Amino acid sequence: MVGGGQLARMTHQAAIALGQSLRVLAVSPDDPAAQVTPDVVIGAHTDLEALRRAAAGASALTFDHEHVPTELLDTLVAEGVTVAPPPEALVHAQDKLVMRRKLADLGAPIPRFTAVSGVDDVDAFAAAVGGPVVIKTVRGGYDGRGVVLARDRAHAREAVAGYLADGVPVLLEERVSMRRELAALVARSPFGQGAAWPIVETVQRDGICVTVVAPAPGLSEDLAAEAEQLGLRLAGELGVVGVLAVELFETTDGTLLVNELAMRPHNSGHWTMDGAVTSQFEQHVRAVLDYPLGDTRPIAPVTVMANVLGAPAAPAMSVDERLHHLFGRIPEAKVHLYGKAERPGRKVGHVNIVGVAPGDVDRVRERAERAAHWLSHAEWTDGWDGHSAND
Ligand code: ADP
């Protein structure tokens, strides 16, 4: 797997159960996945020699991010490496313009957008959409970096001018008036088998996913079926191998728009580790190896995932002690830590909590978010004092 982050770490964890071992191409031996697999190649994902060393003798080459230049992957394919997802598919997760043009061709619902060649495009586009616009870098964005929700036209012009002056290509998109954000997570194998997990609600703060509720509460059966079908159709049309996450907006008038594609295990699927028969990490391995795909059914009426995001200042209390307290108070919390240093806003782990009844959503969400906040801040959001209270 190219990339030594938490996605590779958790994919390795799933691979072990299948009798496999993941070799990772990591930037540093401290990377989350490099800490846990004995088979590490240190190098950059932009270095063909490093990619060759990582791929040598492996059954397949896959990714924990989308940033490997497709020219290098084309070379590896020509040399006989099985690259999954293949470069022709992956490019749609690398380049937001390529993706939007392809989705438009396929008739998939997307916000109105335009490529940008100069600042004056802002006025023409804003006039055409008749409302606020969003500026996005065409490549390289993640966790909301490279996305500017413009306050007004002057702000939009300023943002576009700044990017263009730095030589960074951007696109413009209409700002969608949305009820909430959803994600469709599917997998596809080279054989052509597809499998979809239930549609989830993703809650974002400052462009970062903080909570995922599975399945999305109150989503109509029709919209859920439409989103699942869309995910499966896109996986097939784009020739995806592995997991595909389709980030969606549910608009205020109740329709779906595609925001973003990711061709790898995705934050919106972390709940599957504890809440579904087959986790997204196992499914990714199965798909990449062209095994039959696993059952995607949820094992509970509701599962909530809350990200552990580094606090503004790392707490004095050790992580070990925080875990001790957490398990004492919330024994059902399933914790997944990534072995990363704590930095403000950084994803350092997540907590899953599986509920027992559909009506549990609010309670389970509160407990999952409280657990995650405790792990990052060493503070209980309800002011509970573990040394004096009984809970
Ligand atoms: P990234 O690729 O960095 O994850 P996204 O394209 O997913 O960036 O955008 C990050 C967040 O910005 C989204 O989750 C959403 O909350 C907001 N956003 C993005 N595009 C739009 C849009 N067209 N209208 C309204 N909000 C948007």
Lay out the secondary structure.
Blueprint: H1 6-17, E1 24-26, E2 40-42, H2 48-55, H3 70-78, H4 87-94, H5 96-105, E3 113-115, H6 120-129, E4 133-137, E5 147-149, H7 153-165, E6 170-174, E7 178-188, E8 194-196, E9 200-205, E10 208-214, H8 221-238, E11 242-251, E12 256-262, H9 272-275, H10 280-288, E13 303-309, H11 319-329, E14 334-337, E15 347-354, H12 361-377
Parallel strand pairs: 1-2
Antiparallel strand pairs: 3-6, 4-5, 4-6, 7-8, 7-9, 7-11, 9-10, 10-13, 11-12, 13-15, 14-15
Helix pairs in contact: 1-10, 3-4, 4-5, 6-7, 11-12
Please provide a brief summary of the model.
It catalyses: 5-amino-1-(5-phospho-beta-D-ribosyl)imidazole + hydrogencarbonate + ATP = 5-carboxyamino-1-(5-phospho-D-ribosyl)imidazole + ADP + phosphate + 2 H(+). The protein has 391 residues and is α+β, with helices and mostly antiparallel strands. Helices cover 33% and strands 22% of the residues.
Put simply, the count of helices is 12
CATH topology of the largest domain, which one? D-amino Acid Aminotransferase, Chain A, domain 1
Number of strands: 15
Identify the CATH architecture of the largest domain.
2-Layer Sandwich
Give an overview in words:
The protein is an alpha+beta fold and 391 residues long. The protein folds into three domains: 78 residues, Rossmann fold (3-Layer(aba) Sandwich), CATH 3.40.50; 63 residues, ATP-grasp fold, A domain (Dna Ligase, domain 1); 200 residues, D-amino Acid Aminotransferase, Chain A, domain 1. Helix content is 33%, strand content 22%. The protein has twelve helices and 15 strands. The strands form three sheets. Strands 7, 8, 9, 10, 11, 12, 13, 14 and 15 form a nine-stranded antiparallel beta sheet that branches. A four-stranded antiparallel beta sheet has the order 3-6-4-5, with helices on both faces. It has a two-stranded parallel sheet with strand order 1-2. A hairpin with a 4-residue loop joins strand 11 and strand 12. Helix 1 crosses helix 10, helix 3 runs antiparallel to helix 4 and helix 6 packs across helix 7. The radius of gyration is 21 Å and the shape is globular. The N and C termini lie far apart (43 Å). The model has no long low-confidence stretch (mean pLDDT 95). Bound molecules: adenosine-5'-diphosphate. Adenosine-5'-diphosphate binds next to strand 4, strand 5 and strand 12.
